[in-house]
Amino acid sequence: MNGDHGLLQQVFLNMLINARDAVLDGGTEAPDIHIDARTVQPSELPEAGDVAANEEACVEIAITDNGMGMDHETQRRMFEPFYTTKPVDRGTGLGLSTVYGIVTLFQGRVTCDSKPGSGTTFRVYLPPGEDQDVTEKQPPTPETVSAPGCTVLIIDDEHCA
Q1: 52-102 pLDDT, tens per residue?
Q2: What is the pTM of this model?
Q3: Is 69 left (phi over 0), alpha (psi -120 to 50) or beta?
Q4: Are 102 and 38 in contact (CB under 8 A)?
Q5: Which of 55, 116, 136, 154 has a Cα at 20 to 30 A from 148?
Q6: Count of Cβ atoms closer than 10 Å to residue 21 Cβ
Q7: What single-letter DSSP state applies at residue 160?
Q8: Which residues of 131-152 are buried (b: 16+ CB within 10 A; e: fewer)?
Q9: Domains contained in the chain, CATH given
């Protein structure tokens, strides 16, 4: 598929914007968002969903925040189009619905662990792309992170002039 990278960028941008909003609205003194990626073997996959039926290892990307968290009702409805807990002037509620649609398009799965007042962790499970080997790799060193051709995503809550 052409545009695969753009679609996946949209997934993670939407999730990071939600995490940013959660830590800002959560009133924590030290807002914190973590992104982790790892290879997951079939035996480690969640029971339900298309990815669990995959017999190959896949990639898990987890985004964790220490924001306000979500109650059960919010989690039940979070992937519905236009569902939002934000005020009218702060979004349309399409973020997680878009995430769910794109991840499903890639035959993946999204899970969520959250409790009010305890933050949220979203995990995206994606099967390997065609002709791609998913193997455990060493974390990048600072030299490789700053190498030409790398992309660094920085999300800031300050408006750029």
Answers
A1: 455 678 899 999 999 989 999 999 998 888 877 777 776 666 688 889 999
A2: 0.72
A3: left
A4: no
A5: 136
A6: 19
A7: P
A8: eeebeeeeeeeeeeeeeeeeee
A9: 4-145 (3.30.565.10)
